[in-house]
Design goal:
The protein is α/β, with parallel strands linked by helices and 421 residues long. Helix content is 71%, strand content 10%. The longest helix is centred in the first third of the chain and has 159 residues.
Length: 421
């Protein structure tokens, strides 16, 4: 318990600890709040006094700076006035000088302008002359092109005329022949053409009708050439095709290519050539030698005028490769000998392998029989060794045998032996 004495009546009160702490807290809080209020009032007074002091100091400083700025402004105004007076004087002086010089400069500029006009007139005249020269050169070129065009036109017209004459010739030629005679005439034409140059080829050249129809079809002509060793240089299967203009069914060159390729393969020829007067209006066949190798290997379609040139062309290429053909034949023969040797070696290996296999089988069979015999003998050996052990044990037992051991369980027999003894 705590005692509290009243300051007025001097009465002493007894209160417990909890109430005492509550009263102390109330008194302390009130004093604290009073102290805070007092501090706030003092802070406000100090703040107002500080602000007034700062404000007065700033006003004084601002007055001084304002005064200084007014002085500087006045000085600047004075300087500007002086400079304006000086500039006005300089402008008046320059104006007077410019008036004196402007007359001379105007005269100089006038002279320069006149000179420029003269130069411009000269350049215009030079330009006109250059344009005239260019026009003249272009006219000459145009005239030359016209002359060239006339020449080309005349050449083209001449070619057309020759072509028309050729077509007219063939039309007249076909009109005077039957359908069978047309084909025979083309074959006769090609045969005559070749026979005229046959002496140039030598003795090893064959060119004749294909009369072999064993396979069901045949070509018209076969060309073959070999060297002195019998190696083929060139071989060609020829087919000649023609028809009259009035033929009801018009054939195309491609209608005969498959059969021609078949004849080439059956007669073992390197090249196949269709000599044709079909599709006379088709420029694809009229402009030269047509290579059909994209459809059938080593096949060409030609007009009759290219019959001899194409043979000559192919023969020239074949002669250039003859050396390599001979080398290839030699290599093939060598490869054939090697093949025969390899075949003989393989045959020997097979026979030797067969004999070796039979001998090996018999050898293994004998080894197996020997192994069986060894196993049997080994078993007999083991049995003999076991018998030996049994005999040794029997011998040991026999050596250890005595009358005492024999009569161990037979006292009457032991007594008999003792009585005899």
């Amino acid at each position: 318990m705590n005692e509290i004495k009243c300051p007025n009546c001097k009465t002493v009160f007894q209160i417990d600890e909890k109430d005492y702490q509550s009263i102390v807290k109330q008194i302390r809080d009130q004093e604290f709040e009073k102290e805070i209020e007092r501090k706030e009032r003092e802070f406000e007074k100090d703040k107002e006094s500080s602000l007034k002091l700062v404000e007065s100091n700033l006003k004084e400083k601002f007055k001084e700076e304002l005064h200084q700025k007014e002085i500087e402004l006045q000085e600047l105004k004075n300087d500007i006035k002086v400079k304006e007076d000086n500039q006005e004087k300089e402008l008046k002086i320059k104006e007077s000088e410019w008036k004196e010089k402007s007359k001379e400069e105007i005269e100089k500029l006038t002279i320069e302008i006149n000179n420029l006009k003269k130069d411009l007139d000269l350049k215009d005249k030079d330009k006109e002359l250059a344009i005239k020269d260019t026009i003249y050169e272009k006219e000459k070129e145009v005239q030359k092109l016209k002359n060239d065009l006339v020449t080309v036109k005349e050449t083209f017209e001449e070619k057309i005329k020759n072509k028309d004459e050729q077509i007219a010739y063939y039309k007249d030629f076909k009109a005077r022949q039957s359908t069978k005679m047309i084909g025979e005439s083309l074959e006769q034409h090609c045969s005559t053409e070749f026979n005229q140059i046959r002496p140039l080829f030598g003795e090893n050249v064959y060119f004749d009708k294909d009369n072999d129809a064993k396979t069901g079809s045949k070509g018209d002509f076969i060309f073959r050439e070999t060297d002195d060793d019998g190696i083929e240089i060139l071989s060609i299967m020829f087919e000649m095709k023609n028809e009259a203009d009035e033929t009801a069914t018009k054939h195309k060159n491609e209608d005969f290519l498959k059969e021609l390729d078949k004849d080439r393969k059956e007669k073992n020829c390197e090249y196949a050539i269709l000599v044709s007067l079909l599709e006379m209006d088709n420029d694809f066949y009229n402009n030269g030698i047509v290579d059909m190798s994209h459809k059938y290997p080593k096949m060409y379609v030609i007009r009759p005028q290219f019959f001899i040139p194409l043979i000559t062309l192919l023969r020239g290429a074949a002669l250039n490769t003859l050396k390599y053909k001979k080398q290839l034949t030699t290599i093939q023969n060598e490869n054939l000998d090697i093949t025969h040797f390899e075949d003989n070696l393989i045959e020997f290996k097979e026979k030797f392998g067969k004999n070796y296999r039979l001998a090996s089988e018999r050898f293994h069979s004998a080894i197996e029989e020997i192994d069986k015999s060894i196993a049997h003998l080994q078993k007999i050996k083991e049995n003999l060794l076991k018998s030996e052990d049994n005999l040794r044990l029997a011998n040991s037992k026999a050596e250890d045998l005595s009358i005492e051991k024999l009569t161990k369980n037979a006292p009457s027999v032991r007594k008999m032996f003792e009585d005899k003894a």
